[in-house]
Structures are given as structure tokens and as C-alpha cells.
Amino acid sequence: TGPNKNLDPTNDLFTSGLSVITMSNLETRDKRLWVAWIYELLSPILVMFVLYRGYQRYAKWRRQYKALDIPNNYAVIISDIPPKFQTDKAIATFFDEILPGCVAKAHVAWMAPDLQALQAKYMAAVTNREYYQRLAVDAGARVTRKGCCGRGKDKDGDGEPDDMIEVYQESEDKLLAEILEEQEKRDPQHVLPTHSGFVMFHDKNHAAIFGQVASWVRNTEWVVRPAPEIMAIDWRKTDDSQWSRKTEDFSLAVFILVILIVWVPIVVFIQGLSNIENLVTTDAFKWLDFILDWPDWLINLLQGFLPPILLSIANVLIPIFVKLHMSFKFAVDIGVLEAKSRDVYMALLAFINFFYNLGLGAAISSISLIVSGEANIIDLIAKQIPIQSFFMMKFIINNTFISMPGLLLQYPRFIWRPLIAGITGTTTIRQQEKLNFFLSKFNHFKFHGLAVSMALIGLAYASVAPIMCVFCTLYYFMASSVFKFGHYYNWYLNYTFGGILYPGYFYYVCVCMYVKQIFMAALFAVYLAPEITACMIVPILFTLQLQVTITRRFRDAAERGALYETHLDDVPDELPAEFLADSYVHPGLIPPKPLMDLSGATKAEIENIDNLEPDVPASPRSEKPPISPRSEKPSSSFVTKEE
User: Fold this and answer.
1) Does residue 135 carry a pLDDT above 80?
2) For 69, 169, 249, 483, which has the most beta carbons within 10 A of its beta carbon?
3) What's the pLDDT tens digit per position in 448-472?
4) pLDDT at residue number 501
5) What residues contact 122, with CB distance under 8 A and at least 6 apart?
6) Contact indicator for 378, 28 with CB cutoff of 8 Å
7) How many other C-beta atoms can be found within 10 angstroms of the C-beta atom of residue 521?
8) What distance in Å separates the CA atoms of residue 182 and residue 112, rounded to the nearest whole number?
9) Is the pLDDT of residue 641 over 50?
10) Dist CA 363 CA 3 (whole Å)
């Protein structure tokens, strides 16, 4: 119903096509701008209702998780332990003086990298032995090779080919004996101490209390928080300190700044390509006017379809850089590290996909009029900012129908898994598991970052171009399906995060709401409607009130719900004896358990290997048989014979 669609086509403010359903069809001081303000008043109710239901479910499931009978619900982790307390006895005494008799086990997070390296060699020998067993079963002959392990060493010294199963079985036995001998000689009190420690309590109630209260006079020392799951601990990073974290924070700020600077010319190029017809009218780009002679379909492909694709490809590089940088951070809890990665990724995507494209796109699309000085800058901004919704729309459509199917098909897995399997000869179940775990780390933060980035675009442009809501709905339907499929079928993790990523997602969506409201207030100011701009304080305060209400209602219930759950009659609250032995002990100090055979061959086939004749000497990588149908579904590499 706006008037700009009725202007003369030569007028700079003339709108046509889909532009007539955006705010660019309205003139300045138009009374219909109040309709957009009414939507701004109603939208927080819808968004916060969805977040309310989500936080409600999170609080329920978080309480259930905190009441589970698992080791981390009986333990806390301590960071930045003062030097005089860096002994097991000092840590235990500290907590016993507060609540006598509550501590079941306390120790400094010891470091034993040499023993961990031996255990890694032991697991490599087990994996290789299983590989050659599988190869012998499939080939019908025992594999022999001249020069042990291809290094020119003769195991027996007789110049004859060595049986590879015997070679790795002997190496496995030798390494196991060496590990057990070193562990017996190793006094835990003389293992390298760190600045971190773990305390296990006799019940979940005490663990919940100490994990939620301040127990030290300075917040820079003796930081106590609930312990992560055992398999979610990065033991190499337990020796962190305040100085190391300050250094990391500085490096993180530099990393974000570098990415933002590097992405400016990338976005400028993409936006220039999207507005190529406007650029060639300027003197600086006059030499590109031959593009106007191309067929219309080719020009539309060049400036309509290609730019969002290029932006999506550029965005694929960001999580790779984030992973590389965050891998050097000192975070004991892998879940916390993923949350930090999520925060960095979301901040980068917010700037690149929204602010950069909004500002640079509006400037480049009007560059000819800005240079000539023939148009009013305020009127141009009022027109061009809503028109940028079409680029955002194409970007969301591309992510919905191209990027999300790509995430569903897991292109890196599709390409790299056969490639790595071809190079490494991956055929056994244990080798498959190792590859699956390698490709499964740090996947959650990507979906959270993409979701918040699209939420920012959708929320900001919902009032400016209502058709954006349709494409955002399609995107979230697709993204939800892809995320669930990946979580259930593609990712192989032996730990969970217990829902710790949701509160951050909640706050970032709230931030998106505030950015949307500030963006709309600025847009109303551009439309010379100061009274509407002033009234935008109402939805901002309304959103803040809803956020505070939701947070107060569910945050404490989610984090302190275990105190109630542990008093229920049907919830066990006594520390099981089996949790005391190896829980929160450095993996290098834990004796290796007997491992289940994961070669993929049956017990009868393995027993029959001794009766097979040796084959001619050959490289074990020269022949890579496929996985036979008798292979079982991969299970954990840490399954014992008893299990």
C-alpha cells in the first residue's frame, strides 16, 4: 500500500517487484510505520514464549542429568590451586574442615605424559595386530613381511620374512608389561602436579553444594565448579593458570580482529558482484561495462545466484580457523571449550553475515548515486537497507537448500573417510571407531553459530520485509532435521555436555532481539519518525523484563535442582565403590584393561589363524579388503572382556 511503487520509474525512490512488500515502499514520516512498531511490540512475546518453553525443558532435563548416578555428579574440579595446597592431603583437609567427613577422594590433577605415550603405543600395537588378523582371515593366509614393520629390521635376525601378527602381539605384550611396571614404580605424589585438582564426595548433595558456592576469598584462586565427565577432560590442559588464560584472551581478541579485517575485502567483493550493474556505471569500474552485453540469464546468475554461494563458501572456512585457534586454549573441560568456540563463531558470523553485508551492501548498491551527489543520502539509506533483505533472503535460501543438505550428507566424511581409510588401510572395527571419533569432535558449535546468525537476520528483517519469515521458517525446519540426524547417526562421542550449551544459546538469541530493536530504532530515525524511535524503548524494556523473568525462573532450578533431586527416595545418593578406583585419574596412571577383540573376525576364525600357512612377503597396504558383512556394529574401544 506504500506510495513509492507509484513514482516515476526514473525516480531514485521508485520500487517494483518484491520491493513493494518491504519498507522501501514507504516514504519518510509515513504513518504506516506505526504498524512496524506494533509488530516490534508483539514479536518479543512470540520469541520469548519459544525460549520460555525451551528453557523449561532444559531445566527439567538438566535436573535429571544432575541426578544421574555418574561420577561427575559426585565430583568438583578446582582450578588455580595455590602452590601450598597442591597436594592431595591439603585439598582433602580444606573441604573436610568445612564439612567434616564429606570427602571420599581428593587429588591434584597429576601429569604422566610418558605413561600416556606408552599407552598410545600399546593401543597402536593392538590395532595393528587386529588389522593383520583381519587381513589373514580375508586372505586365507598369514601375512609376512621382510623387515619388521617396514623399517628394515629383522625380528629374528635370520633374514626371513616375519609374521606380522606375531610381531605386533610381541610388541603388545612388551608394552603392556612396561606400562604395568612403570605404574607400579610411579609414586602418585611424585608425578608432575598441576594447578588443577579433583574432589569426589560421598554423595551428590555435597558435590552440588561445593560446585555452586564460593569457597575462597579471592575469585582468581581456588575456583571450584562441577566436574566435567571423565571422557570430556583434556588432561594436557590441566596445568593452566591465570597468566595463561590472560594470554589466551589476548590472542583470542587478536584472532577475532584479524578475521574481521580479512573478511572485509571478501564481503566487498561479494557485494560488488551482487551489484555489478550499479558498479559499472561509475568511472572506476567503467572497464567492466562489457558485462552489460552478456545475456540477461548470465548476468542474473552472476549477481543473483553466485554471491550468496561465495559467502557460504567463505563462511565454511571460519569454523576451521576457529577450531585451529581454540585447540591451543587451556580448557580442561571439552564442553567449555566447545561453548567458547560457539561464542567466537557466533560473533564472527553476526558481524560478517549481518553488519558487513548490511552496511557494505547498502553502500555499494548506491555507489553511483553517492558519487554523483544527485540523491539525498537519508532517502537512499531508507530505501537501500530494506532492499538488502533480498540478498539476505538469497543467502538464507542457499543455506537452506544447499548448505544444510551438505551438512546432512557430511561432505568431509564422504570425502575424507574413504581417503583416510585408503591411506591407512582402515578395515577393523577399532580403526573405524578411531576415525569416527576423529571426525566427531566440535560439531555442536557450528549449528549453534549458524542458528543464531540466521536468527539475527530473520528477526532484524521480519519487520522490514515480512517475507523473510517464510524462508527463515524453512531454514529452521531443515536445520533442526539435519542437526538431529547428525547427533544421532553421524557423531560418535563417548561423553555428553549435559545441556551446558543451551543457556548461552538463550542469551545470544536475546542479544539478537536487542540488536533487532536497536536496528529498527535506527531505521525509524532514518525515516524521520522521531516519535516512533523514542517509543522503541518500550519493546526493548519489555524484552529485558521477559528475559529476566525466564532466567530467574529456570536458571537456578537447572543448576541447583540436584539438591532437591538427591533427597528423593528413588534417587541413589551414595557414591558407588567402583567410582573411587579410576575416576578422575590421569589415563596414563590407569592400568590397561583386557580389550575385546575388534578385528571384525569371529572367534572361530581367529582360532583358525594358527593353522594358516604364511603367504609371500607383501606390503599390508597393497591390498585393502572391504568390511565383510559379518562385522559387528562398532562399539567402544574401551569395552572389556567381561563387558
Assistant:
1) yes
2) 483
3) 888 888 888 888 888 888 888 888 8
4) 85
5) 172, 175, 176, 179, 592
6) yes
7) 20
8) 11
9) no
10) 24
Q: How many residues does the chain have?
A: 643
At 641, the amino acid letter reads: K
Which alpha helices (H) appear in 463-583, and where do they start and end? 468-485, 502-526, 530-535, 537-565, 578-582
pTM to 2 decimal places: 0.79
Q: Are 76 and 225 in contact (CB under 8 A)?
A: yes
What lies within 8 Å, CB to CB, of 13 at 6+ separation is 4, 7, 24, 27, 379, 383
Residue with cell 514464549: 49
Pull the grid cell for residue 364.
Answer: 555499494
* Biggest distance spanned by C-alpha atoms of the chain: 97
Angle, helices 334-349 vs 502-526, to 10°: value is 10
What does the alpha-carbon distance between residue 428 and residue 601 come to, in Å, rounded to a whole number? 9
Q: Torsion-angle region of residue 624: left (phi > 0), alpha (psi -120 to 50) or beta?
A: beta
Q: Report yes or no: 503 and 2 within 8 Å, Cβ to Cβ.
A: no
Higher-pLDDT residue of 569, 333? 333
Nearest to 440 by CA among 499, 493, 488, 496: 493
Reported in sequence order, the residue ranges of 58-114 that DSSP labels E, i.e. its strands, are 75-79, 103-108
User: What pLDDT, on the 0 to 100 scale, is given for residue 642?
Assistant: 37
The Cα–Cα gap between 62 and 559 comes to 7
What's the grid cell of residue 606?
581367529
Q: Cell match 538438566: residue?
A: 62
